[in-house]
Amino acid sequence: GNDAWLWLEYRQPQPGSFDSDLPPAAFKGALVHYEDAGWKDTANYSNLLRFNADDLRGLYFGNAPLTAGSRWVDPYSNLAITLDKNVTNGLQVTVAYAPASGVSFNPASSRIAGQGGQVAIDVLAPANLAWTAVSSVSWMTIASGASGTGNGRIILTVSPATTANARWGNVVVGQATTVVTQDGLAGNVSIEPSARDVHATGGAGEISVSTNAPDYAWSFSVNAPWIQSVYFSRLRTTGSGTLRYIVAQNTTTTPRAGTISVGERSFTITQAAGSPQVSQLNWERQVIVDAPMSRLSMDMAVFTSRGESVLYGGGFSGTTFTDTWIWNGTAWSTRTPVHNPGSQSGHAMAYDAARDQVVLFGGFDSSSSSGLSSKTWVWNGVDWTQLRPSTSPTPRANHAMAYNPLSRKILLFGGTSSVGEAGAGDTWEWDGLTWSKKTSLAAPSPRYGATLTFDAARNEMLLFGGGRDLYTGQRPSFYSDTWAWDGSQWRQKASTSNPSPRINARMAYHLELGQIVLIGGYGAKDLATTPPFSYVFDYREETWIWDGSNWSQRFPGKSPEFSYNYGLVYDASHKGFFAHLGDNLHCADRGPRTYALKPGVGAVLLTSYRAEWPATGGSGSVAVTASVPWNATADAWITLTGGASGNGNGTMNYQVSANTSKTSRTGKISLSDKVLVISQAGAP
Q: How far is the CA of 35 from the CAs of 6, 63, 379, 638, in angstroms?
C-alpha cells in the first residue's frame, strides 16, 4: 500500500577507469535495492542492501557482507528478504510479507515540526486483542498508552530535531506499523574569522565553518580571480569543517578586496597594494598545438645533452600507453622507436648524465604475473633498450628516483612492492651496469609516491613526502617529512614550516633560483577513524620553495592546477623549468597542460649558489641581478667586504677565513630569499 518496490542490480566488469579498479569480489553477487515511496528517508536509513562477498570489508560498498542463507527483516514494515543463492552469475532471493494483524492506526502516518512535542495516535484493534506498542527510535518515546486491549490511544513524546534533514521512526503494534516523520532544523552557518588583511606578496589561510546541524548542506563562492584554490576539508560542503584559500601576489599599485561567500556569511579579504616588483615567481601556461593526451601515472625526465625532455607511458580510463613524447622547450612531438618498455604506469625515470641516457625502472606492468615490473630500460634519444643487470630491486611502482652527479649514480627509494601494499623502504643505486642495495642507520619510513631530486647548492639528494596503506584497508598515512641523502646515509631535515602531508608531489632544482621548487600532490580528507578507513583525496594547487633549511610557500598569480601526477624538469639548455600535468582534474576544463616557471620582476638572482674553498680561505665575489633593494648577511667566519647591500644589480664581495680545524665546514651568505653556500675543506 506504500508503493514499495524492489530491484536487483548486477555488477559486471566493464572497461573503464572506475570498474577496472574494483576488486574481483565486487563482481561476485549483486546489489539489492529496496525503496518505499511513503517514507523517502534516504538520509538516515539506507535502502540499499548489498548481497555480495567483499573481502575488503566494505571498502567499496560500506556495508558488511551478506552470504547465502542471510535474512534481512525491514524494521519499518512487514517485509523480509532471504538470500538463497549467491554465485558469480546468479542471485536468488525470497521476498516475504508477514500476515496482516488486524490492527490499524488513525492517522495512518504522522508528521511533527522540528522543535518536537507530542503526537497522538489512535490504535484500532479487535475488542479482545491485547497489544503492546514499541517505538523504533530513541528520540521518540511512548508517554502513555504503551499497551492495551482493543481500541486505544498512544501519546508519543518527540525530542527536538538534531539534523537539517527530516527523520522518521515508527511505532509497531504486532505486525502493524505507523510512521512518524519529523521535520529537520532550519540550518545555518557561522564562520571565524570574518575578514583578513593580506600582504601584497600573497598568502594562504583558513576559515573555520560551523553549522548548527551536522547534515546541513551549504555552498560557497568567490568573487575575485586572485582568491584561488578554495577547497573544503571534507568531500561535500555539509556540516562543519575548514575552508582553505590562497591569495595570489598583487603586482598592481592598487589595494584590492574580495569575498568568499560561505552560505549566508561573507569572508572579506583585503590585500595591500603592490607593484610589479612584488612578483618573484610566475607560472606561464604554454600554448601548445599538440601534446600527450590526458593520462595519469606517467613520468618525465630531462635529456640534458640533447636539450629536450622525454615523457613515457601512463594510463587513462582503462588504457595504458606505450608512447614516447619529446618536449623541446616550446613544443611536444612524438617519437616512434623500434622498441619500447611496453604498457607502463607508475614507473620512474631519471637522466643518467654519466652515461648520457634516460633510465626507466619498474612500474605497473600488465604483462607481469605480479602486475609490477622490475625491468630496467634506457633511452638514448632514438630508441629504448632493455638492460638485464645481475641485481635489481624487487618489482615495484610509484617509487622515487633521481640522478646524483656526485656519485655519478641514480638513487632509488621506496615504492609499492605489491598492488595495494603498504610500501617499500629500501634504497638502491644504479651505476650503469647493475643495481646495488644501500643501508643507512636512519632512513625514511616505507612509503610510495615520494618525490626526489638533487640539490645542487647543497650537494645532496632531497626526498619529500609520500604515503602508505592507501588501498590496504589499514589506516592510510601521508607524510610531510624531508630527508637528505649524502651518498651513504639518510638524515632527516628540520623545517619550521612544511607542505601538508601528501603523495605524488613533484620537485626539481631550479638552477637560476638556486632553490628546489615543489608543486602539487595530495593528502586525504574525510578520513574515517575506524576500519575500513575510507577517505577521499585532498588535491593541492601550491608552489613551495626549499632553500636548504626551510620550506616556504610562494603565491604566484597562478599555480598549476591540481593533477594526479606531474612531470617536472629543469632544462639547462633552454634555462627552462617546465611542469607537465598529465590531466588537469578540474572537471569543467580537463586535459593536459604544460607550464613554464620563470623568475618574476622582483626576483633577486645570483650568478652562483655554491662556492668551494680550501682550508686556507680566500676572497670571492658573486654578481647580483635584481630590480629591488637587497641586503646580505653572513656566518661568523665569512666576512662581507663589499656590496653587502644594494638596489638593483650589483656585486657582493666576501672573505672566507682560514679553517684551522681538520673538519670541513659549511656556511652561508643569505641575500634576500637566496642563499650562497660556502663549503670549506678542513686543515691538512
A: 7, 17, 58, 78
Scored b (16 or more CB within 10 A) or e, 423-459 reads bbbbbbbbeeeebeebeeeebbebbbbbbbbbbbbbb
DSSP for 555-595, please give it.
--S-PPPPBS-EEEEEETTTTEEEEEEEEE--GGG-EEEEE
Task: Annotate 648-679 with b (16+ C-beta within 10 A) or e (fewer).
Answer: eebebebebeebeeeeeeebbbebbbbbbbbb
Query: 563 Cβ partners below 8 Å, 6+ apart?
Result: 520, 539, 581, 582, 583, 584, 585, 593
CA distance 378 to 387: 7
Asked if residue 383 lies in contact with residue 337, where contact means CB atoms within 8 angstroms, the answer is yes
The secondary structure of 194-239 as a DSSP string is SEEEE-TT-EEEEEEEEESSTT-B--EEES-TTEEEEEESSSSSBS
pTM equals 0.84
What is the rounded distance in angstroms from the CA atom of residue 73 to the CA atom of residue 211?
Answer: 35
DSSP letter assigned to residue 21 = G
Q: Cβ–Cβ contacts within 10 Å for residue 142, how many?
A: 17
The set of residues, in sequence order, having a beta carbon less than 8 Å from that of 492 and lying 6+ positions away, is: 442, 444, 481, 482, 483, 484
Contact 309, 572 (CB under 8 A): no
Q: Which residues contact 254 (CB under 8 A, 6 or more apart)?
A: 273
Over the chain (684 residues), what is each successive 10-residue block's mean pLDDT? 50 43 48 49 41 37 49 63 62 68 88 96 95 95 96 97 90 88 94 98 98 95 97 94 97 98 97 96 91 90 96 89 95 96 95 98 88 96 98 95 98 83 87 97 96 98 95 89 97 95 97 97 92 90 96 96 91 91 72 91 96 97 96 97 96 97 97 97 96
Torsion sign across C-alpha atoms 72, 73, 75, 76: positive
Angle at CA of residue 116, ends 115 and 120, nearest 5°: 150
Query: In whole angstroms, what is the distance from residue 557 CA to residue 541 CA?
Result: 12
Query: Contact 247/570 with Cβ under 8 angstroms?
Result: no
Q: Are 627 and 601 in contact (CB under 8 A)?
A: yes
| Residue 617 backbone zone (phi > 0: left; psi -120 to 50: alpha; other: beta) | left
Which positions ≥6 away from 162 have C-beta within 8 Å? 139, 185, 213, 214
Which grid coordinates are listed for 270? 583585503
DSSP state of 124: E
> How would you class 529 by CB atoms within 10 Å of its CB: exposed for 0-12, middle for 13-18, buried for 19 or more?
exposed
- Residue 126 and residue 106 in contact, taking contact as beta carbons nearer than 8 Å: no
Please give the DSSP secondary-structure letter assigned to residue 128: T
- Alpha carbons within 13 angstroms on the beta-carbon side of residue 46 total 10
223 grid coordinates: 568573487
Q: What is the Rg, in whole angstroms, of the alpha carbon atoms belonging to the chain?
A: 32
